[in-house]
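Can anyone check this?
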Amino acid sequence: MPRLRPAILAATTLSLGSALCAQTLFGAGTAGTGGIAPRAWFAGSPSPGTPHCAFEVDRAVGSAPAFLLVGLARTSQQVVGITVFVQPLASVFVGLATGATGAPGAGSASLPLSIPGSPSFLGLPLQAQWVVIDAGGPAGFAASEGLELRIVPPPLVLVAGTAGTLDRVYALDPATGAAPDWNATIGANNPACVEFTPDGTLCVVAAELSRRFLVADANNGGALLASVAVLGSAIPNAVAITPDGRRAYGISGGVQGWGRVIEIDLDRSSPTFGTQIGTATGLPAASQLEGVGISRNGRVLATCNLGLGETPLVAFVDIDRTSPTYNTVTQVVQLPYMATDVRLSPDGSLAYLALAQLGAPGMLLVLDVATGLPVSLLTTLGDFPVDIEISPRGDFVLVACPNSQELVRVDVDPASPTYLARTSASVPLQPFAVTIAADGRTAWCNEMLGSAAHEIDTATMTVLRSFTIGAGGSAAICVR
């Protein structure tokens, strides 16, 4: 990719609202040659002092001049045939995109960014958009969607689980290898799942034997902020957080009929922060609700029932707060095999389910959310898949398959020539949980029978680094 001198953030005084996720795409790009719109992205962790990060664009016409618009506020204006989403403070000519001249979608470019080390930049919002000179676009231009970037805390990996009688939530700093145990303050009894809010300031732990969802301050050593009890015989085992970071959905199993999906307020400015504010209605009588996923547009939730001695199924819930069916199950689909986990495409139109069989390879089932009908099926996933994550762009999934000791990547971009192609990384001692970094370039997985956390390059599916953390296996992992 062509590169210029890195852009450097200048000191500024701003009144900042609460930070959302590190990067958010908004609007729709303007297509150029071949009907393809350039695609914006940010690579690396946008945190204070990060030396290697960059604004990127791909799917531009080959060898086209590329410009990056950068500002502090959004807009939506028609200019020379394209929709401009940024009130620009600067327009930077980055150079010529890569790729053969005039080739549709073959071009890419990058502008490195250097972020100062001061924590005063946390929450700083930047708006960006790529504009490419393209004879196939309106008035000779094509443009990407808008990209909002917020400066977030440094990378941190939480590894949680129970070994014998020891419950722990280790907070691994990948820069130093230090991994203090936050569970002394969180107090989770048998932590089964842990997730960060998109801005990385809070974490939520599903504590099975505490029968609570615990909300902790991820910028203050895991200090406990709230505890949300579940009712009756429900047992918390999974959690997902909305893209705006203001709500969590806790998933509970238990005895027959005690499957629950509850909504928890994570908005610190709200008088109901850290309390249950809703419940999904219309769930079937199920006791083995296991996995949960929320679409990147924040409108759809999916959860699955394992189906060991019960009916395996997936339920879809409308979680759009403006919808008349808000927090209501819209569809339930019975499945042919045990369902261990589920994730959704960014727009919520497709569900990706990990299906397991005893003594046979696991499967990846792709379902149409609107109809409940199967779209695709990969029958050679790995031995007993247990955890699935989808990349931020929605172009691949990673699946932890402990019995075959591998982390499997599957291409799920329907437009890709390698759609449903499978590659894997060998991970010893049974990888059990996986999490993907905000830019999609790296992932982390744990070991069910070991004590390590592994960083994975998602493009090459190779192990980059491994850290030994405490003693004994773990059940959950997340990264900010």
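Reply from J.R.: I decoded it. The longest strand covers residues 65-79.
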